[in-house]
Amino acid sequence: MILPASFFAQPPLLLARALIGKIIRHRVGDQWLAARIIETEAYDRRDRGSHASLGYTEKRKALFMAPGTLYLYYARGKDSLNFSAEGEGNGVLIKSALPWSDSLSPASSLQQMQQLNPDSKGLPRPLTRLCSGQTLVCKSLGLTVREWDQQAQHPQRLRVEDVGYTPVALLQSVRLGIPPGRDEHLLWRLIDRAEARHCTQNPLTRPQLPCHEILPGQPLVVSEPE
Questions:
Q1: Secondary structure of the chain as H, E, C letters
Q2: Domain residues of the chain, as ranges?
Q3: Which controlled-vocabulary keywords does the entry list (predicted)?
Q4: 190-194: average pLDDT
Q5: Could you read off the pLDDT of 1-31 as tens digits, one per residue?
Q6: The dihedral of CA 55, 61, 67, 68: what is its sign?
Q7: Candidates 3.40.50.2300, 3.10.300.10, 2.40.170.20, 3.40.120.10; CATH matching 5-214
Q8: CA-based nearest residue to 11, from 84, 119, 100, 97
C-alpha cells in the first residue's frame, strides 16, 4: 500500500517511529530500487539541531510545505533524504535502511543499487552495508537534491509503501552529529532493534549513547528541547 500524504501529518517523533519498516521505492530507468527504513531521526522547528530553527529560507522551503514533501540537502557534499512532518519546519531524516527485494524490485534491482553505490575501491558493497548511512541511502536509491527536493511522492516514480512489516522492538537514542548546545540530549533517534547492527551507529554496542528499548504499544520516552 502506498502511504497517503495524510500519513505524514504526524508530529515528527511519531512520524519517525511510524516510518520504521516502511519501504522507499524509486524508479531508475526500468527498475524499481527499494529499501526498508531501519533508522530515523526526528527534527522539530523548536529544537536547535533542526535546520528550520534557523528560520525559513528558499533552501529549507520543503520543511515548511505540506506533510510528506521531500526535503533533500547536502551532507558533506552528498545527498540526504527527509520528509516534512506535521507543523511548519518539522521533518524526519531517513538515517539508514536495508535493500529490499520483492516481485517489483527483483535481484536485478539490488545489483543496480550496488552499481550506483560501490565501495571506495569500486567494488560492490555488501547488501547489509549498502544503505547504512543517510547519504548511502540516497546514493543506492538514485535520489538527488536536484531532482527531488521540494517534491511530493509520485506513484510512478517515487513512493513510500507499507508492506505489513512491524518491528518487534525499537531503540530510542540520541541523534548523531548534533553539536553541544543544539539540543543534543533529545532522544529523537529511532532504530529497528532487530537491525541495530546495520544502522549508522549501534547504541547497543556504544554504552556512551543513551538507549531505551520500546516494545509495540509502549510510549516513547519523552524528551523536549531546552
A1: CECCHHHHCCCHHHHHHHHCCCEEEEEECCEEEEEEEEEEEEECCCCCCCHHHHCCCCCCHHHHCCCCCEEEEEECCEEEEEEECCCCCCEEEEEEEEECCCCCCCHHHHHHHHHHCCCCCCCCCCHHHCCCCHHHHHHHHCCCHHHHCCCCCECCCEEEECCCCCCCCEEEECCCCCCCCCCCCCCCEEEEHHHHHHCCCCHHHCCCCCEEEECCCCCCCCCCCC
A2: 5-214
A3: DNA damage, DNA repair, Hydrolase
A4: 97
A5: 999 999 999 999 999 999 999 999 999 999 9
A6: negative
A7: 3.10.300.10
A8: 84
The amino acid present at 118, given as its one-letter code, is: P
Residues 217 and 169 sit within 8 Å (Cβ to Cβ): no
And the C-alpha cell for 152?
511530493
Do residues 130 and 138 make contact, with C-beta atoms less than 8 angstroms apart?
A: no
Cα 152 to Cα 174: distance, rounded to the nearest angstrom: 28
How do residues 57-77 score in pLDDT, each as one tens digit? Answer: 889 999 999 999 999 999 888
The yes-or-no verdict on residue 226 having pLDDT over 90 is: no
Q: Which amino acid is at 61?
A: K
Q: What is the pTM of this model?
A: 0.95
Cell numbers 500519513 label which residue?
A: 7
Amino acid in the structure at residue 40: T
